[in-house]
Amino acid sequence: MARKARRSATDGIYDPNLTPLIDVSLVLVVILLVATPMALQSGIAVARAGSVGKAAEMARDARIEINVVDNDRVEINRVMIRREHLSAMLQPLIAQSPTHEVVVSCSDEVAHGVFVSVLDEAKAQGAGRIAVVGR
């Protein structure tokens, strides 16, 4: 007759199951590896306004001011033009500007896509720095 091995109450499994802990830890590591570059990367650089002085006044005179009035009209240095003529008017102004700085403001009625396309056109025509000004 074969004897059955009896287990006593003290013969239990006392090792903790570490597999779920390791799985959760590895998932957290992967999330941190993916999220860290996104947290450190910025698409738009923001600079603080400088103090008012002669250099700031000269830079204000040398910059090009664009005001997007509506989806079809744009003001460049207080001259109203049609939106499709923006590139032709902007290119010589940026070429003559010593700072290549463009300041863009926009009305509330203008579509977001139109505003972004004005920013893209200014960059494509050679604008060195583009500042967005709120009203």
Short précis:
The protein is 41% helix and 17% strand. With 135 residues, the protein is of the alpha/beta class.
Characterize the largest beta sheet: strand count, sense, and whether it forms a barrel: 5 strands, mixed
Q: How many distinct helices?
A: 4
Series of secondary-structure elements, N-terminal to C-terminal: HHEEEHEHE
Alpha-beta content class: alpha/beta
Class of the domain at 54-132, according to the CATH hierarchy? Alpha Beta
Low-confidence stretches: none
CATH-defined fold name of the domain at 54-132: Nucleotidyltransferase, domain 5
User: Would you tell me the overall average pLDDT?
Assistant: 81
CATH architecture name of the domain at 54-132: 2-Layer Sandwich
Total E-strand runs: 5
Strand content: 15-25%
Distance between the termini: 97 Å
Widest sheet, order of strands: 3-2-1-4-5
Question: Which of globular, elongated, flat, extended, rod-shaped describes the shape?
Answer: rod-shaped
Break the fold down into its secondary structure elements and pairings.
Elements: H1 19-40, H2 54-62, E1 64-68, E2 73-76, E3 79-82, H3 86-96, E4 101-106, H4 112-124, E5 129-132
Parallel strand pairs: 1-4, 4-5
Antiparallel strand pairs: 1-2, 2-3
Structural summary, described in words:
By secondary structure, this protein is an alpha/beta fold. The protein has a domain at 54-132: Nucleotidyltransferase, domain 5 (2-Layer Sandwich). The chain contains four helices and five strands. The chain has helices at residues 19-40, 54-62, 86-96, 112-124; strands at residues 64-68, 73-76, 79-82, 101-106, 129-132. Strands 3-2-1-4-5 form a five-stranded mixed β-sheet. Helix 4 links the parallel strand 4 and strand 5. It is rod-shaped. It starts with 18 loop residues before the first helix and ends with a strand. The model has no long low-confidence stretch (mean pLDDT 81).
